Amino acid sequence: MIENTESGEAAMNRNTMFRYMIICVMATASLFTASCDDDNAMANDPTESSPLPAPVGNLIPETDAPLHPTLVWKTAGEDGDTVVYDVYLGMTTSPTIVATGLTDTTFDPGPLQPGTAYYWAVRANVNGEPTAQSAVWRFVTRTGITYPVAVGNRWEYRCELTVQEPRIGYYMIDVEEIDYSWADQPAYVFHERYADLDRAIFDSCRTYYYQADTGMYVLGYDSVGSVMPASENSSQQYRFNGATYETVEDLLSGVHLSDKATIARPADVVVEEPPLLGLQYPIEVDSAWIYRDSLPYRIEKEVVAYETISAPAGLFGCFVVEWHYDTGNDGTFDNDIQRTDYISEEGLVQRSVVMLDVEIIVLGQVIDIVDIYADYELVALELR
Length: 384
Fold this sequence. Notes:
Elements: H1 8-44, E1 57-58, E2 71-73, E3 83-90, E4 96-102, E5 106-107, E6 117-126, E7 129-130, E8 137-140, E9 154-162, E10 166-179, E11 187-195, E12 201-211, E13 215-221, E14 236-240, E15 243-245, H2 248-254, E16 262-263, E17 269-280, E18 288-292, E19 298-311, E20 314-326, E21 337-344, E22 347-362, E23 365-382
Antiparallel strand pairs: 1-2, 2-5, 3-4, 3-6, 6-7, 6-8, 9-10, 9-23, 10-11, 11-12, 12-13, 13-17, 14-15, 14-22, 16-17, 18-19, 19-20, 20-21, 21-22, 22-23
């Protein structure tokens, strides 16, 4: 029999060593577990890297970016790979995910807010394995816009005019050509046409605009045909604010067109002298200007807001332009006529005209008092 001659001190040292080894094993197991958790987090956290190269974006302008941009990036992976993309977008340097599983290398974020900084990034998934996240790119949207004026541009609207009953039709605008016959500046010819539901044209006119750095100016027009007729009833007259009109067309045209005589340059065109400032550039919130100072009365315009508008043609970021009428020329704007235009980078998206308490007259007698509504919404467009 062998006696155990180990001293008490040696036994204590051995027990201490054993406990130390257990602690080390537990610490190693804990470290391994934490490492696995970190790996899982990296696969799901867009701020972490991956062995696969990150997508590369085609940068939009860092400043004065469009209000409705398209985010574009280069293809990740190799030919034959299965690749999908996640897009991150926001107003902070850590943008949040806004789209997943995209197969294309573009993303439409919809209309954005003017004068705002945005950040965006992309991550790809190649054959089921996530890549590193791209760099975070920054851009600042423009605070204001100009109107898209180019030969070949076309807009089509659904319009509804309600006098005593609604009437539905179409309103089409084409930028037809540039007219160089004007003495001081060339004019873009906007050909405006109204059609019924069968697309039979029943009214047409041309308006002449000059595009300048300061704004879009109305030079003249060849008729007042830019209003859809309400009915074929020729026996009725319409009285509004003390003035009597033979047709609804005359009424709606009369509240924003002058009564100037026709000047034959160009031939058979009513010329505005001086030209009217139809839109002041840039079109931005809190902008205001005088559209007509007199003859027959004062009209001012004001950009009161920026809104996202849904129309049949899509989703648009629009500046809301209100018209203010002083038909009494007494320094007070009327409450019984309201006109609002919704204008985007793509052009006019919506228009609303309301005239309250219009008297309908037959044989000199008032037979009814009605509110007139004219509403337009964009259904199709083509921009060059």
